Amino acid sequence: MNLWHVKNENDLAATQNKETFLFFQNLLHNSLKLTANNSVAYLINNFVKILVYKIKKNLSQEYLNFLKIYATANNISLNNLLLAVSFPDIFSYMLSKTGSKMYLNIPHVFLGCSTLLLPTENGVLHCRNLDYFGGKLWTSNHAVMLLNFPNMIKSINITTMGLPVVGITSLNEAGISLSVHMLFTKEVNINGSLVTDLAFQVITKATNISDVLKIVKDKPTVSGWAFIVFSHKENKGVLIEFNGKKTCIKELNSLPFIYNNFYMTREQQSSELYPSYIWIQNNFYRNNHLKRLLSDKQTFSLKDAIKIISDTSDYHHGNKDPFGHTVANSFTVTSAIFDVNNERLSLGENHSPAGVGINKIYDLSKIFNGELDEIDKINIIQDEKKRAFYNAVVSVMDILYTNQDYEKCINILDKLGENLNDSYFTLLLYAILLIKKEDFIRAKEKLYKALEKTYLDSYRLGMIKLLVAAIEDFTGKKKIATELYADILQNHRFVDLNILTLKLYTKGVDKNFFKKVVPNFFLSHFLII
Prior knowledge:
The chain is of the alpha+beta class.
């Protein structure tokens, strides 16, 4: 674990971690290249520059100054920095504006942040899993960023070296803890506040809940977001949910409290956007599994909390597959618990999922004084086979979001040997990589193996069947394809799945269809543009 103590502008220099910054700066562009041809990616990229310009005009002076200092210290342009920190807002904004006009997706979601507020004997644990891109790049450089600028409340921000995210997973010296969740909404607003700006203001200014509410009042955001805020000195918390039109606030009067990536305030629920059914399923599974994990306890220890946020069981199939809709997953780059009343901070210090393995316990008071003092560690025992799966998938994703070397990705998965066949997900991923190389025969073999995993729920089985049907259709096996299409429509009744099934059945499948099948893991396992 690195301590990134920022006392002045020189401390923001992170030239030794430039690779990390460049990854996030180029993340949107590389995502577009995965999901669109180069000319379309170029056009969208130019549109994004206009969005960044509009976002910059609405930044608070304090946050704009902070970004300018960072940009100067690292000899980068302010616009490129904004592109890196505003990627989620821009992505969500574009998704809402384009909707089904841009793409249909047959998705599989693994990432989805989790926040828990758990009562203890003498306080509340603020538990947080951050799921995001970056993989080994992020988790090789876990960092505690102590922001200690003049005229700001001192704050601890959990990040990766070189990426100045303040307020996303944070605690300030006044005892205000904050975690931020991305949501999807139909109500977006390019003239709204940037979520990282509001988070920055909360964690550097607020001393109590009243201060927090003054900062966020009447501050619609560019896209959909939620803040879970707890004031440990006041022993009270609030949920704040944003969209492009309004801000809604809910007092948290009952603990434990669980938050995943869906709106909970009644006023915001009507605006919620569901990119696909899998987004609903993923959040439902994680939320209900967390309720199950909490059901037999009234109070929790730090060790209890670490076990809960490091859980890797799927609500539907348990541990029958290394992958699924799990609390901790191959995108969990940060796993943190603020135990303020006992002056403890727990941090998972592993590759994704960060909390599976060694979790180190630090003295919070010493961190605020500029020392990273490890006082204990708790080991969440790793299943070596599962860890090999996670490492392989994280490595593949890091490659896909940089140079898109499909052959290299296949070679990584090959190292799993026969274990590759033990997960529907790695079989599906392998098949998609083979499709990108136009090796349809081997791709189909992998998909049929994946269909043997009868423990999967109806939606996930239907997704795999649809890709098999498309290959059978394309390779001239129309009868088999038609039977599969009929099976999906009869036995796997999900709107997005059925719309695409009918489209392929009526129009047929050509080579262009497979050019548009890409391994994209933010919203989809394979995406159909």
